[in-house]
Amino acid sequence: MYSGFIQVDAPGESYHVTYQGLASSIKDKKIFDESDYFFGFKTPVTVDPAGEIQTEPRNYTYVGDDLPALLYR
Are 48 and 56 in contact, with CB atoms under 8 Å apart? Predict the structure, then answer.
């Protein structure tokens, strides 16, 4: 990693620009995880209001925050 800043000064003005980068090519690096698993569970899965993966049947009231969400990748 490298970083730094470029500063340009003129009468009555001053500009400061930071930069950061890697000292290698990341062109061929894998950016996205293409698996269909999330913490050991095959997706898509249903998630309860607390964010926990639903592993057993459950009834939701759909009142307030009591509703399911679908987690997929």
Answer: no
Comparing CA positions, the residue from 47, 53, 40 lying closest to residue 65 is 47
Domain count, the chain: 1
pLDDT tens per residue, range 23-56: 777 777 777 777 888 778 888 889 999 988 888 9
Q: 17 with 3: CB under 8 angstroms?
A: no
Distance CA 13, CA 26 (A): 36
Domain range for 16 is 2-25+32-71
For the chain, how big is the Rg over CA atoms in Å? Answer: 24
Q: Model pTM greater than 0.70?
A: no
